[in-house]
Amino acid sequence: MKTVFSPRHAGHSGQTELVGGEIVPGFENPSRARFIRERIDAVGLGPVIEPGPHDIALAKRVHKPDYVDFLPNAWPMWRVAGHSTPAMPFVWPAPGLRSDVPPDTIEALLGYYSFDAGATFVEGTWEAIKSSFDTALTAASLVKEGERSAFALCRPPGHHAGSASMGGYCYINNAAVAAQWFRDQGAQRVTILDVDYHHGNGTQEIFYARGDVQVINLHGDPLTEYPHFLGHADEHGTGDGEGFNHNYPLPAGTDWAAWNAALEDALRQLSGFAPEVVIVSLGVDTFERDPISHFRLRSDDYPKMGSRLAKIGLPTLFVMEGGYAVEEIGINAVGVLTGFESG
Ligand code: OKP
Ligand code: ZN
């Protein structure tokens, strides 16, 4: 399997996050991609190529144009406003406040274009966001050109990013951009299967009223798990999208047996939809020792996941999302890919 990877992710580094009222170094750090990259070489997964540049207009097919235009401006505006620490949102137009008047200052714009404080900017953040977007589209092209599968080693991740909101370490929704690109290239139906521990609220929101992109999520129950405010089992889609969104919220402590049972149900939904291409939002924060998650998958479960996904028998694009047990992230993520290759 070919991997697409850009060293430009590394500029998104030294960013911080708020955990329990304390500002700490981000869990989503450059070593994540480095460990995965090293594991690809160690097991000989296949060639690693750099992405080519893609028109940012493609991001505006799934995100609001003004939101996409904001992203490269955030850090420069933050600097002009006199700050040098990472830019972090802190005020939001919650229900009862007005969100129809875009504000003028960067402090307010950060909140206007986010749903939490979890997407922060440093000097190299925009370049990393753009490289992650380019990575997803370059890998999508490989699949379109006939590869059975490809791995987009994206960083930062994307599945929390909605049509006009960043959050949860995500800015541009790489999987959603790729799905739209496959549609624009002529695929009639595309499925996004999100196996990250956290519900992919952004992906769900983007395609919620559409019947051409099926969205399936397996994740920690939002009653207790981030992102808390989407991902319940009764969210099935709306309008043309009715019946094309499927959520599998699972309890803390879920192990492979229970997770796999949910996957089997999910794959019945997928088969019924008969997509032409599958995009896997690949998070490995379902791992038993993930520092911010509560499932109990073990390293030897990931190849099983991959081989099951191969049995779907469809062209498959893997797009990297979460996973924060950095010592094992390479073993686990690449385990899915080697399992797919042998499956
Ligand atoms: C991004 B991805 C819990 C705080 C949650 C944000 C988690 C973002 C996960 N104490 N922080 O889906 O892996
Ligand atoms: Zn996650």
UniProtKB/TrEMBL annotation:
The keyword Hydrolase applies. SUPFAM superfamilies: Arginase/deacetylase (SSF52768). Pfam families: Hist_deacetyl. Residues 28-330 form the Histone deacetylase domain. One of its GO terms (molecular function) is hydrolase activity. GO terms for biological process: epigenetic regulation of gene expression. Gene3D superfamilies: Histone deacetylase domain. Its cofactor is Zn(2+). It comes from the Bacteria. Keywords: Hydrolase, Metal-binding, Zinc. Belongs to the histone deacetylase family. This is Histone deacetylase family protein. It comes from Nitratireductor mangrovi.
